[in-house]
């Protein structure tokens, strides 16, 4: 299409709506990343302390959990916490935004 063709008001509204939706999606995903990172840090600390303590104090853990196993335990919990919290945050933010959009359209 030619660049100098004027857009109808309907097309302008659709583009503005699309830009607004993209901005909200970016904000939702950013909030999810931040919340997931915080959860991963907390989960790492909460898992590392008992894992390291058990390896030092329990004979079974000392014999069976080498450094790789310890790292795998800690990183698995941190990764799971990140993805669970990020997903829940993105869904909650999207739900909140959709309800706000409905209330704005009714007003």
From TrEMBL:
It holds the Pfam family ENOD93. Keywords: Membrane, Transmembrane, Transmembrane helix. InterPro entries: Enod93. It comes from the Eukaryota. The chain crosses the membrane at residues 33-55, 67-86. This is Early nodulin-93-like. It comes from Quercus lobata. The gene is LOC115977036.
